[in-house]
Design goal:
The protein is of the alpha/beta class. The protein contains 3 helices and 9 strands, in the order E-H-E-H-E-E-E-H-E-E-E-E.
């Protein structure tokens, strides 16, 4: 995989430092609220969620959800469907969606709508990466690790056709 990486965009050290900062902010914001339910969006969030969850200093519970985007040939339609749901009810719980990346925003928009209908006590979102210039829907991301440009990135959970997910850094793929 390494030979296909054009350049490292965010190093392992930079990711570690930023995840630490995000965990500190989240821990402070949720400190008097009881346990936060972290919902990791599979597959891309699995490494970010693992690191973030371990750095929080507040009570937390880990859940996962899986969604898929409908595709027409090479293009995504923007429609999203649920593949795997969380196990437990989130009613009256403090919920934080954990994403690796917000690109068009359709996935997060769908999840916020769907989870809000289940009447959580609060619902917020956290994404390691956001490509603001690619946004197609207006969606609030409460905690953002890094704003990045419109380039395809892999590593730290993110893939290109299932490749590159376990790289320890975020790299730009050579095209
Ligand atoms: C990626 C990523 C987000 C979504 C963001 O998932 O993990 O969930 O795309 O894109 P959007 O903002 O344009 O909706 P993907 O569908 O590639 O699946 P994966 O996480 O299993 O790789
Ligand atoms: C999804 C996604 N997955 C990996 N790398 C990117 O740049 C991406 N944008 N949207």
């Amino acid at each position: 995989m390494d030979e296909k990486i054009d350049r490292i965009l965010i190093s392992e050290d930079e990711i570690r430092d930023r995840v630490e900062q995000l965990a500190a902010s989240i821990s402070q914001d949720y400190q008097d609220r009881g346990p936060v339910v972290l919902i990791g969006v599979l597959k891309g969030s699995f490494i970010f969620l693992a690191d973030l969850a371990r750095r929080l200093t507040i009570p937390r519970v880990v859940e996962f959800i899986a969604v898929s985007s409908y595709e027409h040939g090479d293009t995504r339609s923007g429609a999203v469907r649920l593949i795997m749901d969380v196990r437990d009810s989130i009613e009256d719980k403090h919920v934080l969606i954990v994403e690796d990346i917000v690109d068009s925003g359709h996935t997060l928009h769908y999840l916020l709508d769907m989870l809000q209908s289940r009447r959580p006590a609060s619902l917020k979102s956290c994404a390691l990466l956001r490509k603001a210039e690619r946004a197609e829907v207006d969606v609030t991301v409460d905690y953002v690790g890094f704003e990045i440009a419109d380039e395809w990135v892999v590593g730290y959970g993110l893939d290109y056709s299932e490749r590159g997910r376990t790289l320890p850094y975020i790299g730009v793929i050579a095209t």
